[in-house]
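To: structure subgroup
Subject: Chain for Friday's discussion

All,

I'm putting the inputs and outputs inline so they're searchable in the archive.
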Amino acid sequence: MKKILNLLPFMFLLISCSENKKGYHEEDEMFILLTDSISPDKKHRIVEYQFDHGAHGYSRVFWAIAPTSKEKVNLRDYNLPDGYKSKGWTIGNEAVLEKWEPYYYKEEEVLLKSGDQYKGVTLQLR
């Protein structure tokens, strides 16, 4: 019994930090919208968000490029690959991205370059 009690904090942490397999939705109770930037042509939006897992604000940040035409979008389907974050839009409706060094999922690195298309949006890397 004592071993089980000792494992409870670890089990709680594992459950609370586990990945949501259903998707990432703005309607989720723990969803925190950081920024929502609409493209100049109003066809896409960049959503910067995270989830409140009770870690005092220490939660990873996600960036998604999603269409504005859909309601209740699963942002997980539109997340930028790990290692890239959005810095906004150009006047020509290109998403401006910046490369950064993630500390997780490094084996899944994706190489993007200026001019690439992502979810129907042309990218500009800086």
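Points worth raising on Friday:
The chain has one domain: 28-125.
The longest helix spans residues 2-16.

D.
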